[in-house]
Amino acid sequence: MSGKPRLTYLNGRGRMESIRWLLAAAGVEFEEVYLETKEQYDKLIKDGFLLFQQVPLVEIDGMKMVQTRAIMSYIAGKYNLHGKDLKERALIDMYVEGISDLMQMILMFPFSPPDAKEKNLESIKDRATNRYFPVFEKVLKQHGQDFLVGNKFSWADVQLMEAILAVEEKVPAVLSGFPQLQVFKTKMSNIPTIKKFLQPGSPRKPPPDAHYVETVLKVFKK
After folding, report:
1. The GST N-terminal domain covers which part of the protein (predicted)?
2. How much is the pLDDT for 27?
3. Does the N-terminal or the C-terminal CB of the chain have fewer CB atoms within 10 Å?
């Protein structure tokens, strides 16, 4: 096995996408194994690879890691994206938790029943524009720096960039009232590792489609 981290998940965004973003932002190449059948998933459980019977699974530094938050915290620590001291780390964690709440809504959206899709889309738009994005607009303005914490690129910046693009796919004008976030998005897009990840052909996954939803339901069916 090469020294590259090995990611096991479905061939789609889901809970692995934030991990892909973070590794890519850190300039780390990785390998992927895609689950396509329930048998593959059951075998991972039977072989004891999935501590809580859940993916994402990331094999890194001789560890088989599960639980998205733990995996990302490890990557952020390993690649110096977790702040310079305990106070910065606390701020980064706090911002990441907030963004995760918004991302959870986006994650679940493709699985909404057809009659609930419009209502759920309105909820995403409302939460983004009234609860989450105003916080980060204010943080950037008061902090007066390019990044959310200190003046160094961190895990929180990567998560916020992912969230901005994910919301924009559904609500294209969502940043119209947030000039600081517009500037932030432009600066983040030009960081070489992120610029590379945003190019066609990168490991970044497209928005979930019907085939992805169908595969998720098939692989994880009880």
Report:
1. 3-83
2. 96
3. C
- The pLDDT value given to residue 48: 84
Query: Are the beta carbons of 216 and 10 closer than 8 angstroms?
Result: yes
**Per the structure block, which two tokens stand in for 157?**
């910046």
DSSP 8-state symbol, 62: T
Q: Which residue, chain included where needed, has tokens 């606390």? A: 90
Q: Which residues pair with 31 in a beta bridge?
A: 6
Residues 184 and 99 in one domain: yes
CATH number at residue 74: 3.40.30.10
If you write DSSP's letter for every residue of 38-61 in order, what string do you get?
HHHHHHHHHTT--TTS---EEEET
Looking up residue 133, the CATH number of its domain turns out to be 1.20.1050.10
pTM of this structure: 0.94
Which domain covers residue 138, as residue numbers?
Answer: 86-190
**Residues 164, 108: one domain?**
yes
Instruction: Return phi, psi of residue 9, to 5°.
Output: -165, -165
Closest CA to 13 of 213, 217, 152: 213
Instruction: Name the strands in the sheet holding 31-34, side by side, starting at the edge strand that comes first in the sequence.
Output: 31-34, 6-9, 57-60, 63-66
